[in-house]
Amino acid sequence: MADVTGTTGTLVLAGTPIGDVADAPPRLATELATADVVAAEDTRRLRRLTQALGVHTTGRVVSYFEGNESARTPELVEALTGGARVLLVTDAGMPSVSDPGYRLVAAAVEKDIKVTAVPGPSAVLTALALSGLPVDRFCFEGFLPRKAGERLGRLGEVAGERRTMVFFEAPHRLDDTLAAMAEVFGAERGAAVCRELTKTYEEVRRGPLGELAAWAAEGVRGEITVVVAGAPDTGPDELDPAELVRRVRVREEAGERRKEAIAAVAADAGLPKRDVFDAVVAAKNAERSGPADGKGLS
Q1: How many whole angstroms separate alpha carbon 66 and alpha carbon 35?
Q2: Which among 57, 176, 213, 240 has the fewest CB atoms less than 10 Å away?
């Protein structure tokens, strides 16, 4: 129970199953049963989880989701400063990782309140391990923007990333996202789409981005994690003019002016801006003199 002596409490971030409830760590049941306050992203899902684990929560249960995160954080910090043990759980995986939690952690740290965790399942690490792609170095990019131009812009920012990349995506946007990735990263870049991890219909589809985009166009359901291979380690002399032009075009489609796009592509490729400019001009002249393929620069 809450400490009335003035000692601050503890914030506990608890990982919850991403699919199979049997993956719940044993400590999760103990924390659920003994916490003074349980802050849950969805109280209905929390109820189903406690029933599945055979646990009865004795503390106060409150909702803590994106819509009320800012307003509820001060209330939870007040409970913590009063000595309460506050348990934070989200719908699946670790709180604060593309889920509510960051604001509360930051506020607790600022007040010098102890923050600890109950490690649990992670869609990021599970998908990475199953992907068959390099795992020695990776980065997590979360959800991409919903708008097409902003999505292309974000992908353009990481087009030269050498580390394996992990993304979350909604099933109804997966085909557009994979098509955008194929355009920006190249259709032959290796990737894996991990669907319904640890659940009954778990599926890991591996292959080039172009093939995965065609597969997803037929419709995909379930929770999705996408893992994409990093950019190949190529020197400036290995980037042909067509590739330079393609990179400029992608940035222009994302809203950049041509001059800025050329400068950014040159910086990423380690080339003088003049080399990229010359490639763009040559492509433009070739398009004017020959049949248009819809992929040039106008």
Answers
A1: 22
A2: 240
